[in-house]
Protein 1
Amino acid sequence: MKLLVTENYETLSQITADIVLMKWAESRRVNLALTAGSSPKRAYEILADRLKQVDFDQSLAHFYNFDEITLKDQEYGLTMQALTEELFLPLGIEEENIEVLDSKNYQAYDQKIAADGGLDFVLMGIGSDGHFCGNLPEFTSFDYGVYRVPMAPEDELYKMIDESSPHTPGEEMVTFGPQTVLAAKELVLIANGEKKAGIIKQALEGPITEDVPASVLRLHPNLTVILDRAAASQLS
């Protein structure tokens, strides 16, 4: 594991953007799975600016959403809606370069990834409970590939989505499981802010356990963790 501790969130974002750009600029097909959310937001803004300054065949990059939460009466789920707004539209990603994971195709998605040449790069955040992608402590097994998590109105996950989204949650979430992520060639985990310091310490220095799903990422031979000083403040 390579650990990079940056002075602040802006520097973290610049480094993250440059790492993604270097993967994207390789002169071959590159399969990328990039997270949505607050942590990478500034990195994607920087990446959009970087793309205006470089000249390479952007069509070689293919993008895979690594989880999806279904929404009732919506064409796309929560993750695809967020990625479209935060990444695909600002960066001008063509529809044919977006490899959608959803509740209809998840059972064959590991095979699809393999047929496409495997994942080259996965960029992830970490939740306050230690989850990565959609791998929540109460549902995850380290043996899982892509899998489905059912949702019902009484579930905490359903309630959280219902409170944070203007749309009604559907009946399921699908996600890359630990085995799918660990099969990728390169992983990057980013976190910022003091609120992530406690879980970062557990994930990077505690036992490797399904109670802290992100701890399993330490088993990957090519993992880079990028933190600002606040997120790294509890590491020994």
Protein 2
Amino acid sequence: MKRIKPAFILGITLLLTGCLYPEDRLAKNQVPNEVQLQTVQEAVVQFQEASDGLLPIKTRHSDTPIFQKYPVDFEKLREYNLMGRAPGNSFEEGGKYQYVIIHPETEPTVKVIDLRMAAELRKMNTLIEIYRNEHIYPPFGKQVAEGIYRLNHESLGLETEPYVESPYSGQPLPIVLNVQGEIFIDYSRDLYQALQKFEHEYEYGDDIRYILAENYPFVPAYSLPYTIQDGEPVFMEPQS
């Protein structure tokens, strides 16, 4: 097994284990920052250089949604002596973030998924499963696009419409259903703000979710594809 830059390894170990800070400042108690992301990014780049272009990623099914498809495999980084342990705020260390890679074939870039959103979706899926044990169709509410619906929260026994907190803005994001009854987070609000804030050359048919993934530490996980129409985000039409 190849060994790579011991000094670099020591720096990563000290940074990610939090041994230089008191407990209340450990990485696991902080939101993802540029230092943490850059540290993992450098380890990923060095792994790729040492393994003839391979990436340190866990195997996922081919139909896994794109932003969840390439989670960083910290065990592989440890095997190459590139990292003593995963960041303290990572899923592997009991934290609330999963480190993932976007653009794996062109410019592999490390980002994170806020797993608190997944927890909220699991809760909602449980309610939907209970509902569907007694009803033929999912709890469809108002239709917002072709084949996309808001949740009928009253049918689920909820007083208000459920939402998840945006990792980008902190604003509430709705949950939507497709015709199969699968649930997703609606990032339309965040996408609209990002389209106004950042320069871009997106055209109709492009997946504009990358404007969030490329300008923030977070990826828009658990989402449907969006494109742009008349300067605003819209759901992509389902492929036949």
Protein 3
Amino acid sequence: MVMLRLLRAECLKTKRTPFLLTHLLVPLIISGIFLAYYTYSPWDFQGKVTAYFQGLACGLPIIIGLVCAMASEQEANAGHFQVMLATTNRKIMTYMAKLLLLLLFSLGAIFLSIAIFSIGFIELLHEVHFDYSFYSMAACILFGSHVIIYILHLFVSLQFGKGASIGLGIVEALLVALLLTGLGDSIWPFLPYGWSGHFISLWIIKSVGMDITLLEASLRHGIIACIGGIIVTFILSCLWFWKWEGRASEH
């Protein structure tokens, strides 16, 4: 299958880069820091879980900006994007393979981080209010909420370079944190940077048994906007890449 061959080729490209190491070390470090802090933190259970997941939601845009920049620079250094652009009849598939690789690594890193945290939280700190199924669903929520961010960053990193991607990630992290305050209560369903933090917060609230009836309309709007946004953004990104001929500065 063509896509599998392209994915294998993309994996081989990452061998001599810090791409894989980043996806292994960052989850380990983040979960370790939170678990170490929670060994003596006076916060209650719900506060600890909420802070961890909202921290992930705020930090992910920066990590996404970094890894998309790595992927883009690897292509630039390997031959000014000619490997991606040379296969005219499979041009869109090469783009899809790179995006899919980023998403697969993201999924793995998110599950790794949450697995480390949940095991430590349950087995070491004996916080057993939630079972592992809660954490698995939380990982899926975080991943799904950031798919559109990956599409955006792959476009920015290919079109404008690593500095733009990393800089955008920092700005996005601030926006995520800002939308978690009262300023985002009415607008978060329509902004990609409000989805992850609010989706995960609502999942926590529902899981502790609180009534979210008054928030169901916002949740429904957010889910529709998220799914629709991913589809539209992906289609637009494919149309852009089909006509893209590399960065002007690379010629």
Protein 4
Amino acid sequence: MSSTTQVITCKAAICWEVGKPATVEEIQVDPPKATEVRVKMLCASLCHTDISSIQGFPHNKFPLALGHEGVGFVESVGDEVKNLKEGDLIIPTYVGECKKCENCVSVKTNLCLTYPVRFTGLMPDNTSRLSIRGQRLYHVLSCATWSEYVVVDVNYLLKVDPSINLAYASFISCGFATGYGAAWKEARVKSGSTVAVFGLGAVGLGAISGAKMMGASKIIGVDKNEMKREKGEVFGLTHFINPSGSDKSASELVKEVNGGIGVDYSFECTGVPSLLNVSIEATKLGTGKTIAIGSGVENIVPLDLIAIIFGRTLKGSVFGGLKTISDLSIVADKCQKEELPLHELLTHEVPLSEINKAFELLKQPNCVKVVIKM
């Protein structure tokens, strides 16, 4: 049986309808069912997906308990949970890994068929463990990390070393790890190759770091925020382009930096629809490969078919192609050993009670990641 059967009342950030600001209110969190754990969140963070969530992406179900990045410890476990115990430090993710299905045993994808990415706002049994004044709460993906307590299915959790920096662990629960994995697992960047990264937020900086780790010889960052140049260089950037001061397209500017030809790999990390075609056009004729990572409310994108017909490849990526246990554990180990300059991501901190301030901070040019203290 679960180690506790009590409903917990705690604070959480809630959005009641599309476009409304978040409010911090008391909610009720049920005990975990058989294959679930209840987590005491310790630290969370904010990224652009959280902005999209209050605008109705990836689903339009409200009231919504917000947040999808974070780290916490196991408060209680369901009676079928064998690999975790009370007190274990965990990272919640939104990609499961059963290690048995066709996709999990393949090296081609991280998208588990047994525990898929959930866009229902509910648990795998299509119910919720969260409620407010008797009304069911939805969550963004597999959980709601901007809540003092949350329940997560065990198949979406990674146990991590208790000495890991909590803020850094939060960053790899989605953003940074998504970019890092996109270069490592999705593109499989070859040593000596050339790379362009569009958008130098946490995801883009992760892609730069992953490309450097894979041995890319030239890594070009594209961003309208001049302040991102210095951040990018810390993670491995070799060239920076700010297209706002030019009448040329960003793809043309990338080619100029690369001797007049496209790069081997490009990563679209912004979710801005118009930049998808730009990132494709920035790659080499015949062999260029573009990884689409960014997404948002506007997801119908007119595709430049000519750019694809001329031999380029476009590949989508969820969580950077990282498998929750097999791959994210490797990133977490690097994080715990401080082999990645994740301290450069941390620019602001706010308490949960000031969650709307976090959204305002994210608009500032010097902001990369906002940590939310629970």
